[in-house]
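REQUEST
  id: r-88c1
  op: predict_structure
  target: Monoterpene epsilon-lactone hydrolase
  payload:
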Amino acid sequence: MPTPIHQLEAIKRFLRQNRGPSGKSIEQIRNEMAEAARQLPRCPDIKAESVNIGELYGEWVSIEGMTDVAAERAFLYFHGGGFIAGTCEMYRDLAARISGACGIKVLTFQYRLAPEHRYPAANEDCLSAFYWLLGQGFLPENIFLGGDSVGATLALMTLISLRDAGEAMPAAAVLLSPHSDLVHLDGESYTSRAMTDPTGSLEGNRKIVEDYVGGCEGGLPALLSPLRLDLHGLPPILIQAGDQEVLLSDAERLAVQLRTAGSEVKLEIWEQMWSVFQFMAGLLVEGEQAIVSIGEFVRTVSAAASGTARR
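RESPONSE
  id: r-88c1
  status: 200
  body:
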């Protein structure tokens, strides 16, 4: 049974009333986002173990009492927050739900935030977290990448950077409502979904770019537009998006470009949903179902890899 329409409309009204960052300080935005996350229903029995990833704070997240955890695998998750916000605490619930669905511990971490730390700080920290996992003994083919919103973009940019450096690829990636083009911002859904998206807007995404890049002589870095880059040689990718979000076109066009480049991609468009609805899985049936689908994707990729290794 899907979430009742009256409940969806009530959630959307609340999100619309609280989405506008105009006139708010960065600290106020961060505090409000953190407080909103604390108000959501929490997954019971979350287990979070603190870890230092170089100079960055991180957490290994799972569910207490999980018996099917694949110790040799890891799910490295890059949080969203428009490059200006996001903490391990905020994402603890989502990470635990993903961990339970996948049977893998999830590693979250706090990359440096804008505007104090502009491009390429977050990109560098994401690469560092991947290399840190390698240093802990994890094999590239046993590491999954994931993220939401700009975190999904960071996951995609990390894949491209690793490929361009000639590094071995992670097993797969999960992208929730990715910004696939932060340079041109020309997706059709910026217009067609402007009135249905309760959280995102073209203006808001322009602000994301401004906060992360600031004044950039010579134009924006090409890496911020994965959609326009060479996408060959990437591992299997799951993309999830809502049919009411302004980033819908970014998800759809990215899937087309990945397939054209020869990559295996699964695109899921969820009806009546908005950007990163999975974050509200404690309230939304669709959020729970989407996370179950993430688990099925990860387990399928893992099983295929294990079968190949045994041959």
